[in-house]
Amino acid sequence: MPTKDRIQMRDPFVLRHDGEGCYYLYGSTDPDIWKSKGIGFDVYRSRDLEEWEGPYPAFRPDADFWSDKNYWAPEVHAYQGKYYMFATFKADGVCRGTQALIADHPLGPFRPHSDGPLTPRDWECLDGTLYVNGQGEPWMIFCHEWVQIKNGTVCAVRLSPELDRAIGEPVELFAAHDATWVEAVQSVKHGSGYVTDGPFVHRCADGTLLLLWSSFRGGKYAQAIARSASGEVDGPWEHLPEPIYESDGGHGMIFKTFAGDLLLALHTPNATPLERPVFLPLLEQDRRLKLAE
């Protein structure tokens, strides 16, 4: 069984399965997610977060699936007795977007649930994540990509109770340049712009609502935190002045182990094919998160 330092993966996402006493690890697992044709998503399973069974094929597209590239950032949530994968896809002439898939078990097989992307069809979007508020209303938080609008944004849209369609129009939560620590990136294809990547919501024990997200500082991928002043998804969101991690890693999520420890999962370094999943211990303190020393 491979250890996580031997698993090439971007955008790691961990699902804890209480009934089985194990963890499932998903991520962008195609060998080159930038250039090669999309293969699908793999999943690994572990009881100790060190040795992982797999990979198992969680999703493989049917021949008539609309997307053939950029299979990115799958995350899986248990919801109303099923398992829902939110993942990003793209095709030539079609905007990148996040679609919902469904399965009866964390191993899959996952099959399309929504009719194409849940994100707006004329927006280049990515990295949708599920958030269910205190009233039980599901939302998807996602990024409107900088390659289209230069100053990337994080947005939220209400979902149907079935998670198969968006309800209403997206609401912008904040833009990348709202955070003073963010620096522009340069791309031969897209020019200069400010990146938003990988949003993930975390509710602290004291009720504080935090949002992890990633951008760039000093030419390196970095993981940062925004905090909702209202405690609700519509904010307003205030940015903590310094990233929580800036050693060329990001696209994080937070999960709690069976022992009760809080861990940040992210990938580092941000370079293909060297990226690996990393788990870092976290502490909640003063309405924020910090890496445990």
Automatic annotation (TrEMBL):
<protein>
    <submittedName>
        <fullName>Glycoside hydrolase family 43 protein</fullName>
    </submittedName>
</protein>
<keyword id="KW-0378">Hydrolase</keyword>
<dbReference type="InterPro" id="IPR023296">
    <property type="entry name" value="Glyco_hydro_beta-prop_sf"/>
</dbReference>
<dbReference type="InterPro" id="IPR050727">
    <property type="entry name" value="GH43_arabinanases"/>
</dbReference>
<comment type="similarity">
    <text>Belongs to the glycosyl hydrolase 43 family.</text>
</comment>
<dbReference type="GO" id="GO:0016787">
    <property type="term" value="F:hydrolase activity"/>
</dbReference>
<comment type="pathway">
    <text>Glycan metabolism; L-arabinan degradation.</text>
</comment>
<dbReference type="InterPro" id="IPR006710">
    <property type="entry name" value="Glyco_hydro_43"/>
</dbReference>
<dbReference type="Pfam" id="PF04616">
    <property type="entry name" value="Glyco_hydro_43"/>
</dbReference>
<keyword id="KW-0326">Glycosidase</keyword>
